[in-house]
Amino acid sequence: MVRDLAAIAPALLRNLCSVAAPPGCAVCGDAARSGAPACSSCVRALEIARPILIEPGPAGIAWAVSAAPFEGTARDLVHALKFGRRLSAARVAAAAIARVTVPRLRDLTVDASPRGAALVPVPADPLRWRWRGFDPAEELALALARELKMPLRRCLRRRAGPRQVGRSRAARRGSPPVVDARGSVPACAVLVDDVWTTGATLIASAMALRTAGARQVAAVAIAHAGRPCRTARRDLRFPENPT
Ligand SMILES: [Zn+2]
Q1: What digits encode the pLDDT tens for the residues 15-64?
Q2: In whole angstroms, how large is the CA radius of gyration of the chain?
Q3: Ligand 1 centroid vs 49 CA: distance in angstroms?
Q4: pLDDT digit string, tens, across residues 140-160
Q5: Domains in the chain with CATH codes
Q6: What spacing in Å lies between the alpha carbon of 135 and ligand 1's midpoint?
Q7: Residue 181 is inside which H or E element, if any?
Q8: What distance in angstroms lies between residue 40's CA and the mean position of ligand 1's atoms?
């Protein structure tokens, strides 16, 4: 116990500093309307960003939606959450994801009933979690669960392995992360992650859910980085994207 506390103390200190930071836009730090997590400029930039729908997704994922390409304000938002430790950025991201996800949720049903659908955060590498002291995907999933009024199920665990960030696409695909399901999984799962790069972690998560009995799996993310994966040639844009 004492050893565990000592191990996570630096992360706790960083998070306390983050909480103590003066309020402002979670993305750019500028002044924001009282109580709002982001300034009007960043909110507007996310509203006009073009969401990306990949349908069908890879490896049994029915569809995957990202609120924006990994650039500009969306990239700043991911960095604010992941590296800047601004947890209020999760609220901003959740609103952006919800806006483009709600139309797709209607298609997720089991036995003609939307019951049984739940959000499932893509699990973090345990060593990264311990270092950070929080899990960006889980914070995002929590905020999204509130936004969409959907249940949240933390039913996936990732085994420790090599970091995905900084590795080549070939290296990531050659040794994908190992993900296990724990306990019962929802019949209809919507995986939540911050950024989709190669999709290796999403695919491993989807396979774990399917193996454990999930009948439908979809995925949402703040941003999509780089090329679509091989099975996502039908990379579509939402015609109803607000401009
Ligand atoms: Zn801003």
Answers
A1: 554 444 557 999 999 998 888 999 999 999 999 998 988 888 888 899 89
A2: 17
A3: 15
A4: 999 999 999 899 999 999 987
A5: 49-235 (3.40.50)
A6: 23
A7: strand 179-181
A8: 7
